[in-house]
């Protein structure tokens, strides 16, 4: 048997879920319950306590899924699903670290490229260097096009 130690983020998510239950906020409870279930599933499957970084990845994954569903709902012009998706993103976003702007990440990339003397074929090396700096603070899907535009 191992000792469970709670991370601050995990504790906050659980407290907020309980507060939402007491407030009878079914939509918020549903969203937080899904994230907490993903955290629990990770811990059961991996047999280890999840770190805050792991929780951030789970939250990012959930937000990505909601955004994909939002795109589909927008194509169908389903106002109810669009509102639900926006609400889910609104609920989950505060649990992520402060987000970096496009300009900040672009400047970081310019600095990495200048300091490393990277050529256009070194995209993988640049990605390896930038990812730890922006992990959880910037949408991953935006980085690749930014690197391509700077290398061209």
UniProtKB/TrEMBL annotation:
A Pfam family of this chain: YqeY
Leader sequence segment: none
Family matches, as Gene3D superfamilies: 1.10.10.410, Uncharacterised protein YqeY/AIM41 PF09424, N-terminal domain
SUPFAM superfamilies (alphabetical): GatB/YqeY motif (SSF89095)
GO molecular function, one term: carbon-nitrogen ligase activity, with glutamine as amido-N-donor
Name by which UniProt lists this protein: GatB/YqeY domain-containing protein
Organism of derivation: Clostridium frigidicarnis
């Amino acid at each position: 048997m191992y000792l469970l130690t709670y991370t601050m983020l995990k504790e906050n998510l659980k407290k907020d879920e309980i507060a939402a239950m007491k407030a009878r906020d079914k939509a918020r409870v549903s969203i937080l319950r899904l994230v907490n279930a993903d955290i629990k599933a990770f811990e059961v499957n991996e047999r280890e306590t999840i770190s805050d970084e792991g929780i951030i990845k789970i939250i990012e994954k959930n937000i990505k899924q909601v955004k994909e569903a939002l795109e589909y709902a927008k194509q169908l012009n389903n106002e109810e699903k669009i509102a639900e998706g926006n609400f889910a993103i609104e609920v989950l976003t505060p649990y992520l670290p402060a987000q970096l702007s496009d300009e900040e990440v672009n400047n970081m990339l310019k600095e990495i490229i200048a300091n490393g003397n990277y050529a256009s074929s070194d995209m993988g090396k640049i990605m390896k260097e930038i990812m730890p700096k922006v992990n959880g603070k910037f949408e991953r899907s935006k980085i690749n096009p930014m690197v391509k535009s700077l290398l061209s």
